[in-house]
Request: fold
Amino acid sequence: MFKKILIAEDFQDTNKGIANTLENKLQAEHIQEELYCDNAFNRIKVAHNDGEPFDLLVTDLSFQEGPVERRLKSGKDLIGAIRKLDSNIKIIVNSMVDNPMEINSLFKDYKINGYVCKGRNSLNELVMAIQETLQNRTYVSPQINLNTSNQVLELDSYDLFILQNLSEGLTKKEISQKLKEEKISPSSESTIDKKVGRLFDKFGAKNTHHLIAKLVKLGKI
Amino acid sequence: MFKKILIAEDFQDTNKGIANTLENKLQAEHIQEELYCDNAFNRIKVAHNDGEPFDLLVTDLSFQEGPVERRLKSGKDLIGAIRKLDSNIKIIVNSMVDNPMEINSLFKDYKINGYVCKGRNSLNELVMAIQETLQNRTYVSPQINLNTSNQVLELDSYDLFILQNLSEGLTKKEISQKLKEEKISPSSESTIDKKVGRLFDKFGAKNTHHLIAKLVKLGKI
DNA sequence: CTAAACTTTACGGATTTCCGTAAGGCGGTA
DNA sequence: TACCGCCTTACGGAAATCCGTAAAGTTTAG
Reply:
């Protein structure tokens, strides 16, 4: 069994529920809980540098903003930072996201080892995911179908990146710049322009205001 | 202390976290967990009819849809059904909602006894809420300000008219036209422009995309 | 009543969005 | 191979946005 496990989850009740279950159902020796991404990262970094690294991270994706400005604001930020440091630590994501494209990208781009979709069986699934991970296999909640992502009204992670940044007030020029900085291709302003234009058709939106309002209401952003 | 407590919360990890904490920190004798509103209601109804009613319900507001069609789909549905049956049971809501208007209506229209906003301290708050409720007092998470906070960020019907039309893809010119047609004053494009600009300051938005995304997320549009 | 403060409106300029055209790249296929 | 369809990118023009200035109207306080 894993010796050192870290749980990153901002809701205290959820965090505690996971920690208790892992203590009871698995024989994990050392379980650490963190409510902020920055704290989680620091703890992993220190342990890594001390030669006593964590074996497993269980993390949420979405973290509420607190009163203080934080460097790592989401589970993705956290995982990205950790993977630069340590490619051995196993990572299981435990989140409400159920978009297959999004989850696929976590496995492909962030090298996570398991994905559990929060729900009425997610604690049991988490235990299963950990057992699979122990044997170097991956785990995905059964209700997620990574293959048949219903093309129709699905957004891939690239679309999501653009839309999220637009909804945070960035211009297409700024988003293009950001993509170049993060070495994500394609990155030209023109391509972003065209992509958004195609999303107008796809979702029946008149313009960007309309599109953002629709997608936020659908919970996609 | 309360003798019979029911927890209605669809996320297994969260549910378990709450149950464990109440067992450890309070001396509750009988804690029951339910993942579906319908099940929670039935259990409360049966206990009530048997003359051994529950003393306390801790419930979430939002419940994921499952494969089967359910009668009670939200915490509000559940509370509404329970209050028709039993006005004595104490109800504490534990949810991510942080809209003061929404929470106010839970106290006023649904006669709840406490409101805890999910977050990094919500388990501790829940324990406090239960202790307050025991003494027939109400509890609300300190970060929620039922009186003031929302005055500042309130939208009048004129603002709402503009924002709703913007979010439906109309331009300021078109909205100006529409106002003139409906004989609502002021109606000039310039005034609309200025009003929206002031809303940027009020809500800390960079531009209209940002503003619309924020307001839809706040449930104001 | 009057001065100060705010609102409505117009206008103009820099920037951005929206959309059409067009050139070049890349993969599939007959 | 040559052709087709799709994606990326550049460019340009019309329309829209964002924001500053300014004049005229309205409200508020003393």
